[in-house]
Amino acid sequence: MQIACPTCAAVYEVPASRLRPGRHVRCARCNAVWKPAPVAEPAPPQGAPTPPEPVAREPAAPLADAMQRLAAMPPPRSPRRVGLTAAWLASVLVLAGAGTGIVIWRQAVVRIWPPAGRILVFREALTQQPVQNPGNRAQ
Fold first, then answer.
1. Where does residue 94 rank: exposed (0-12), middle (13-18), buried (19+ CB within 10 A)?
2. Which residue ranges traverse the bilayer (predicted)?
3. Among 7, 18, 102, 139, fewest CB within 10 Å belongs to which?
4. pLDDT tens digits, residue range 89-99?
């Protein structure tokens, strides 16, 4: 429904549900306040046939088959679960890489942090690969 400001003639498109009897409206252009005229519902034209009600039909066979296949499919993985899996995989790879680096560069690790020699000595007993601990050197 269109209403027009009586002061500045600004035209506004307002849904009829927003206009209630007895309420005032304010013009955005000139700030004038007025009570819009009551809106009468337009009467349907005489002799106009009412539209026929839709008849519910059964879905076509291809549509029914597609719906059955869709129901049989497993639900898609949520993005949250995919992200969680990726985070776990990245964590495991980082830890495996750190462990591999410590084993490969064990001499440098023991030189930088001598208490690591105690842990790596245990590895020496398992693999028969000597680890030189600078803290345990005979002088």
1. exposed
2. 82-105
3. 139
4. 999 999 999 99
CA atoms within 13 A on the CB side of 56: 0
The Cβ of residue 133 has, within 10 Å, a number of other Cβ atoms equal to: 19
pLDDT digits (tens, 9 = 90+) for 39-71: 555 566 676 667 777 766 655 677 777 778 878
Residues 38/27, Cβ–Cβ less than 8 Å: no
Positive or negative: CA dihedral 8, 12, 15, 16: positive
| Of the candidates 116, 123, 105, 102, the residue with the CA atom closest to the CA atom of residue 135 | 116
- Contact at 8 Å (CB) between 103 and 93? no
Task: Output the six-digit token pair for 105.
Answer: 């560069």
Please give the angle made by the CA atoms of 95, 97 and 98, to the nearest 5 degrees: 65
